[in-house]
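Sample A.
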Amino acid sequence: MIFLIILLIIASVDFGSEIMEIAKNDLLRFVKLSVYFLFYIVVTYEIIKQVWISETVNIQIIYGVISGYISLGLIAYFICMSIEMFYPGSFHGISASNENPEILSNSIMYYSYITMLTIGYGDISPVTQIAQKTSILIGLMGQFYLVIITAIIVGKYISQSARK
């Protein structure tokens, strides 16, 4: 809880500095990404833990599973965005480059979810070795989440139905 409060304070300071247009340099952008990254790691962990320890499957558990998957995609986004910040040009097919941060951010978000879902249209591709390895990791994270969490939920649902 203390960790979440600290992250909330850092995020609030970051939002305040962004409003005052201080957050223009890369260091503050990296701090902002780091805070969000840590926040979503904690959130995803808590969601998975709650799904894991639940005894019954209900609508809240289903929402939790969906939220966990979305959070996992955001973690992938923050990883890819950090790579693009430190190694510009790591992803081929992003037209905006660093000139328009909003288009860059949207393209990286799109790439992260497409990779996690293992769709892989090929319009954006990793070029550097770290981006390629991260893409593999993101695809594996998405598949492991789907396979393991789905198996847990189905097993609990079957067990719940058998008890009735």
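Sample B.
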Amino acid sequence: MPTGKVLMPIGDATEVMDTLYALFRIAEDGYEVVVAGPESRPYHGVLHEIPPSEVVPWDITRELPAYHVRATVAFRDVDPTGYAGLFLSGGRAPEYLRYDQDLLRITRHFFEAKKPIGMVCHGVEIAAAAGCLAGRRAATVAKCALDITQCGGEYVNAATVIDHNLISCRTWHDYSSLFKPFMALLNRAAAGG
């Protein structure tokens, strides 16, 4: 079993399916998933869905309270050189996390070092704010396509997009096609390949 650490940044309004599925799946392969936040504390998770039958339909996702997720380290205390990979989950959290200069420093490290990066939904907002998407191809939820294109990247409306060390998908609904290549990349990198 590979060993090593994978960093997962979160904040209030982290989407729980985006976050918890990834946390447990990565841990299945023997990695320690370190959840980081602006501070070391529990964060409020949310559930996003488009209701299947409403009298008045929703054009966008509806947000409901969900599980809490604990961050065990603050961004300012993270040394990214000790991590094998990064996973950027979604929800509304990235909308304000993208202003955290420590998180942007951390994110740039993973892109510059060409370490494995998984990214889903609004997680793209962190990579975009860090200036890491120029010349890159990535998937995200359609309403975040501008976060890729305004930075000189290419938005791809596909279940999963593999661009070297960056593997991205639109939403957690695409995880069945994201995690096989992401875990293969992470395992190869951990084995020195």
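B remarks: Residues 160 and 169 are 4 Å apart (CA to CA). The two ends are 15 Å apart (CA to CA).
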